[in-house]
TrEMBL record:
Protein name in the entry: F-box/LRR-repeat protein 15/At3g58940/PEG3-like LRR domain-containing protein
Signal peptide boundaries: none
Lineage: Eukaryota, Viridiplantae, Streptophyta, Embryophyta, Tracheophyta
Annotated organism of origin: Sorghum bicolor
A Pfam short name: LRR_At5g56370
Recorded superkingdom: Eukaryota
Domain F-box/LRR-repeat protein 15/At3g58940/PEG3-like LRR: from-to ranges: 144-276
InterPro entries noted in UniProt: FBL15-like, LRR_dom_sf, LRR_FXL15/At3g58940/PEG3-like
Gene3D superfamilies: Ribonuclease Inhibitor
Length: 340
């Protein structure tokens, strides 16, 4: 094979390749998907899933299909205990599609060390959980062990934390640019950041589903969001004031949140279709805006006659507030009749 000379041949070959590329592009041929998987992963790593993402291309677009395939190639990491920070750092800061970490026995100090590294890496789902049961007497001890500040996950799309009442400080700044689902369970909230501010449209512009379950330390919760569709607030216990201004909201659950104080709430959800209010209701302090789309109302237990006159007052008052819709009591209770 001759290596020297042949300049004319090289020029002709380049022209032919350019012509072939132009023809393939004109025909809409997808050459990106034919590359080896390891090359595709390297391409995606270099792109680093730039945020905010551009408007989605039509489903029929070859580029859209290739991008979906690239995301599926990112690794998924599982740790049965909190990892050492160096295990989530390397020279290239390779992205991961999902990170699952068991947090049994984790301390605020250990969580504060490796979570910032994870925040730069997770481009999809983050799950941080403690599997062990928590006794009532252990809640106070867990909440008094201090707190770690949860970093801002700019690339994550779903976050689920179950922390056995570990202390959590909401980040006071930062934008969760791509987050659509947030689930917080068995969390003890500490300052200075506020949960309501963190899940607002300003800082969570894409959030559609929010669940806060069995949490402590929340007293005043104010949520203003243009994107939320589903919200579940359950067993917050110390909550004293709730403000919800969510125009697009379709489903709202508030259950066992006002256990230590008189409920004070202002709910504005004009497109709400399902309301599950299994909590105290006082029309003088709990205000619902216009809900012309409401179709179903869930309530707390209903104590059947003859003992229900006093216990059912809150429930019956709520029924009167929403007339002409389907009502679903959480439970019908029949107390045993006393013998004469």
């Amino acid at each position: 094979m001759e290596l020297g000379g042949g300049g004319g041949d090289s020029a002709a070959m380049s022209a032919r390749l350019s012509s072939d590329d132009a023809a393939a592009a004109a025909a809409g041929e997808d050459r990106l998907s034919t590359l080896p998987d390891d090359v595709l992963v390297l391409i995606l790593i270099l792109l680093k899933l730039s945020t905010p993402a551009p408007p989605p291309r039509p489903a029929s677009s070859p580029t859209a299909g290739a991008a979906s395939g690239l995301s599926a190639l990112l690794p998924v990491l599982h740790f049965t205990s909190p990892p050492e920070p160096h295990r989530l750092r390397d020279a290239h800061e390779v992205l991961v599609r999902a990170l699952f970490v068991g947090a049994d026995g984790a301390t605020p100090e250990s969580l504060a060390v490796w979570l910032p590294a994870a925040a730069r890496r997770v481009s999809g789902d983050l799950t941080l959980f403690s599997s062990g049961p928590v006794k009532d007497e252990d809640e106070e001890q867990a909440g008094q062990r201090g707190a770690f500040e949860f970093p801002c996950f700019e690339k994550a799309t779903s976050i689920s934390l179950d922390l056995a009442f570990q202390g959590l400080a909401v980040p006071p700044t930062g934008v969760f640019t791509r987050l659509t689902e947030l689930h917080l369970s068995h969390v003890w909230f500490h300052g200075p950041g506020e949960l309501g501010d963190a899940v607002s449209s300003r800082r969570c512009p894409c959030l559609q589903s929010l669940t806060v379950d069995n949490a402590r330390g929340l007293r005043d919760l104010s949520i203003h969001s243009e994107s939320l569709l589903v919200m579940v607030l359950r067993n917050l216990r110390s909550l004293s004031q709730l403000t919800v201004v969510v125009p697009a909201l379709k489903e709202l659950t508030v259950a066992s949140c006002f256990l230590e104080s008189r409920p004070v709430a202002n709910i504005s959800g004009p497109h709400l279709a399902n309301l599950d209010w299994t909590d105290q209701y006082d029309p003088s302090s709990v205000h619902f805006g216009k809900m012309e789309h409401l179709r179903c109302l869930g309530t707390s237990f209903y104590l059947v006659y003859p003992h229900g006159v006093i216990y059912n007052h809150s429930c019956l008052t709520l029924f009167q507030r929403f007339e002409g819709i389907i009502i679903k009591p959480q439970k019908l209770t029949y107390p045993p009749l006393q013998e004469a």
